[in-house]
Design brief:
With 246 residues, the protein is mainly β. It folds into 2 domains: 121 residues, Immunoglobulin-like (Sandwich), CATH 2.60.40; 117 residues, Sandwich (Immunoglobulin-like). Helices cover 7% and strands 52% of the residues. It has 2 helices and 18 strands. The chain has a 5-stranded mixed β-sheet, with no helix packed on it. The protein has a 5-stranded antiparallel β-sheet with strand order 10-12-16-14-15, with no helix packed on it. Strands 1-3-7-5 form a 4-stranded antiparallel β-sheet. The longest helix is centred in the first third of the chain and has 13 residues. The protein is globular and about 65 Å long.
């Protein structure tokens, strides 16, 4: 697909005025320079098309294109880009497990090993807000019990959330929930007795398992996943960290 001549002229002008070697010589330049993903819902999948040009004086041959981070798949890209030629990179981006501001990068690798990059930014909206997202298990021996309490409420603060553990996480953890009214004016001082309908959640270990790659690791990193019937596409998670007692 041919690129509009006005866009190509813009690309070349930007390349000539750029002071870094990356853009001045043998570069792929995209317009806009940072692709605006915009605001998306957690769990959505979006098809993204990046448009740019080879602003160097020689042909660029791509060996591979990949996403730096999670959620990118099904890449489509040209194998060769002629000098001054247009380049379109297309892929799907899954926003499951993401929330808040995101800064992602697409990496294009030439057959000569040289990398080229494209940046993206956006914001992932989550329907459920967790007062805390990371918990410390300390030095942990197999079978020990750990327990943490935190608060959850809906982002729009209008209704009480419904929450349960993901099937896989339920093998190592259990939860108890209690309906409460919260004051969330200060996120570092969440209090009961306000007007926001929420849940008081108690997360308890059933006995963390050390298996697979974890057998060679001293550190603990357990992602605890939740689900909600009201928001089936949402993928809220918390992280449990610590160290195994040998």
């Amino acid at each position: 697909m041919a690129m509009n001549n006005k866009i190509l002229k813009t690309l070349f002008a930007a390349a000539l005025t750029c002071s870094t070697a990356t853009f001045a010589v043998d570069a792929i330049l995209f317009v806009p320079e940072v692709y605006p993903i915009g605001e998306v819902n957690q769990g959505d999948t979006k098809h993204i098309a990046l448009k740019g040009a080879n602003v160097s004086q020689k042909e660029i041959t791509l060996e591979n294109v990949m996403g730096q981070g999670i959620g990118m798949s099904n890449f489509k890209y040209p194998s060769k880009i002629a000098p001054g030629g247009a380049i379109n990179i297309e892929f799907d981006m899954d926003f499951s497990g993401m929330e808040g501001p995101i800064n992602a990068m697409v990496v294009m690798v030439g057959t000569d090993g040289k990398p080229y990059t494209a940046s993206l930014e956006g914001f992932v909206k989550t329907p459920l807000f967790f007062g805390e997202k990371m918990f410390d298990a300390g030095y942990y021996a197999k079978g020990e019990k750990r327990e943490w309490t935190f608060y959850v409420w809906e982002t729009d603060k209008k209704a009480r959330p419904e929450l349960s553990l993901d099937k896989a996480s339920a093998k190592e953890f259990s939860i108890k929930t209690k309906p409460v009214k919260l004051n969330v004016d200060k996120l570092d001082e969440i209090k009961e007795g306000g007007t926001v309908p929420g849940l008081k959640v108690t997360l308890t270990t059933k006995g963390l398992k050390r298996e697979g790659w974890e057998l060679k690791q001293k550190s603990i990193r357990k992602v605890v996943s939740f689900k909600s019937k009201k928001y089936p596409k949402a993928t809220p998670e918390v992280l449990v960290v610590g160290y195994w007692k040998d």
